[in-house]
Design goal:
A seven-stranded parallel β-sheet has the order 1-4-7-10-13-16-18, with no helix packed on it. The chain has a six-stranded parallel β-sheet with strand order 2-5-8-11-14-17, with no helix packed on it. It is globular, with a radius of gyration of 15 Å. The model has no long low-confidence stretch (mean pLDDT 87). By secondary structure, the chain is an all-beta fold. The protein is 0% helix and 45% strand.
Amino acid sequence: SDGLSGRGINAQCDYEIDRCGWLDVRQVVLVANHDGGVVTQGYDTQLQDTTIRGGLAAPATGTEGRGINSQCDSLTGLCGQLTVAHCRITETRTAAVTVIGERAVIRGSVLEATAPRTGDQRAGRGLDVACDTQADHCDPVLVEDTLIANNHAHGVLSTGTELTLRGVTQPLSADVDVLW
């Protein structure tokens, strides 16, 4: 490892032909990946009946250790869609699920026990949603019938996005922060 990465699954667009693909992950267990369990840029991604746990910080920086990170592709500006169904993302760092600019649907899943980054002891969110200012994209995110619990900083952090929560369970001590 280069001390910066160590992703379980990484999928990104081919910038030479401006094309993104799709990724379908079912009944997979990803454990102890540095940087991220599943990291996609611009891909249409579906995860179902999958477990991601024990995300580790990148040794060189003490950052990341995310469960799922889905965002628009920085080189092509293309954005995909993320679907997470019946997944368990636990004991990761920074965030269990991060969505930047892309449309996402999270259903029947568990986002729990996210720890802070080791480098600065910040973050530790269940769900982190933001617009992609570089790609000028800000698609909506829907979360249904999902448990978001025992996360270090926030259960949910939404920055400037259209976020819908339905049937989401959070302990009373958990936060939902929406920044406009």
